[in-house]
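Researcher: We plan to redesign the surface later, but first we want a full-length starting point. Tokens attached.
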């Protein structure tokens, strides 16, 4: 049992260290689409936290947003994270779909206020405003 716990702790430490290395490398990317994608998931996590607490967000949108957040946090993926470039694609697609769904339920100003990243990226994701 003890070796099992040690192995689990070592795995958790290695996972956190790999995330730290990825964050450091992402900060060194030149401006452009790759840098936007590298910052997409952290911005989505912040947006999920902010929208979950906002009373202007309907319950259905909160459920979709929380499910997307859980999907990103889950270690089980359709595409394994260790595959370079395509590893985080399933996370990005699920979060993008949840944000588009929430974008139909929540006023655009609320989503833009909750988004910590570049507003143009969220605007591209949401598409043109609906009237």
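Model: Full-length starting sequence:
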């Amino acid at each position: 049992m003890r070796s099992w716990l040690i192995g689990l702790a070592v795995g958790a430490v290695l996972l956190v260290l790999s995330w730290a290395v990825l964050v450091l490398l992402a900060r060194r990317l030149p401006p452009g689409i790759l840098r936007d994608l590298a910052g997409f998931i952290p911005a989505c996590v912040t947006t999920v936290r902010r929208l979950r607490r906002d009373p202007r967000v309907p319950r259905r949108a909160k459920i979709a947003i929380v499910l997307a957040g859980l999907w990103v946090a889950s270690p089980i993926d359709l595409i394994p994270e260790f595959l370079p470039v395509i590893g985080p694609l399933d996370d990005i697609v699920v979060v993008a779909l949840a944000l588009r769904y929430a974008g139909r339920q929540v006023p655009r100003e609320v989503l833009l206020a909750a988004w910590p990243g570049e507003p143009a990226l969220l605007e591209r994701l949401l598409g043109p405003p609906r009237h």
